[in-house]
Design brief:
By secondary structure, the chain is α+β, with helices and mostly antiparallel strands. It has a domain at 84-205: 2-Layer Sandwich (D-amino Acid Aminotransferase, Chain A, domain 1), CATH 3.30.470. It contains six helices and 14 strands. The strands form three sheets. Strands 8, 9, 10, 11, 12, 13 and 14 form a seven-stranded antiparallel β-sheet that branches. It is globular and about 50 Å long. Bound molecules: uridine-5'-diphosphate.
């Protein structure tokens, strides 16, 4: 297909969309970590992330979170609204893991005293450094009301997704999201953009503490595709490996830890 490629990232490609103000987001099979120093192709990952992200964005749209997602087009692609990406990654954390555990000397798995929101400046050259609201406003990456809006949306998204995953026996440890500005004549609104998938979340099985996310790749644990498939299956997206249905979430009886 002869479409104009607008942008190619590590795990996705953006093409121009069929109408003005739209884009096509294509999910690749590339898995990268440590700012692409580690790179592998994991066949089928893009298909799973497309489905999982579609499911989560649809649920978020339904509960009134404004998102860029319009509809899934095929196995690897979705139609999205074109936005101007705010160059800040918002990380929401419920439990200590990854960089915060290292930075602050916390035990991985330790519950945090409350949900913590962090900002990272999107820059591959600088390895996405942790920044404060001061940096964001001083350098003009976002205005104070935009930061407030991103934080309020992030907390709503966290509450909703934590409950949704808890219902299928998964703990939402942390996740990364991105926001964009949508312009409509004189109006501007902030939309949730990018993706939400096991590439951008830490998801732990509540009973076994198994990791069902990209840490399996970062830490060379193997079984990445099986883990992503398990997330999809529990969300009711896949009942069997190849059988794509829309049966809704699979309730998992809560077990005592
Ligand atoms: N994350 C992401 N993209 C990034 C950095 C982090 O999606 O470029 C996600 C990561 O999967 C985890 C959360 O954000 O769910 C927090 O990541 P952390 O800061 O602990 O960094 P990491 O340990 O992944 O380097």
């Amino acid at each position: 297909m002869n479409r104009r490629r607008i942008y190619e990232g590590k795990a996705k490609v953006l093409y121009e969309g069929p109408e003005p103000g739209t884009l096509i987001q294509h999910f690749k099979d590339d898995a990268t970590a440590f700012n692409a120093k580690k790179h592998e192709l994991i066949e089928g990952k893009g298909v799973l992330n497309n489905r999982i992200s579609e499911y989560l964005f649809t649920r978020l749209n339904e509960m009134g979170i404004p998102t860029h997602f319009i509809k899934r087009l095929n196995m690897r692609e979705q139609l999205i609204r074109k936005v101007e990406i705010i160059p800040v990654e918002v990380v929401v954390r419920n439990v200590a893991a990854g960089s915060i555990a290292k930075r602050l000397g916390l035990e991985e798995g330790e519950p945090l005293p409350r949900t913590i929101i962090e900002f990272y400046y999107k820059s591959d050259k600088l390895d996405d450094p942790l920044v404060s609201e001061e940096h964001i406003t001083a350098f003009g990456w976002a205005h104070p009301p935009e930061i407030d809006e991103m934080m309020a949306l992030s907390l709503r998204i966290n509450d909703f997704l934590s409950g949704l995953f808890l219902g299928v026996g998964i703990k939402l440890v942390d996740f990364k999201i991105e926001f964009g500005r949508q312009f409509d004549n004189d109006m501007m609104r902030i939309l949730l953009a990018d993706e939400i998938s096991p590439d951008s979340c830490r998801l732990w099985d509540i009973a076994s503490h198994d990791k069902l996310d990209k840490d399996r790749f970062r830490r060379d644990m193997g079984g990445l595709l099986e883990a992503y498939r398990e997330v999809a299956r529990r969300l009711g997206i896949l009942t069997e490996d190849r059988n794509v249905t829309r049966s809704g979430p699979v309730l998992v009886a809560s077990k005592k830890e």
